[in-house]
Amino acid sequence: MSLIIVFVISLFWYVWNYKASLIDRVLFSSISYDLKCYQIIDSDEATKIFESNIQEIEELRTRYAGYVFITLVDAENSKFEKCPGKIDLLIDVMGEAETKYIQKQFGETFHGIPYRIVNR
Question: How many domains does the chain divide into?
Answer without folding.
Answer: 1
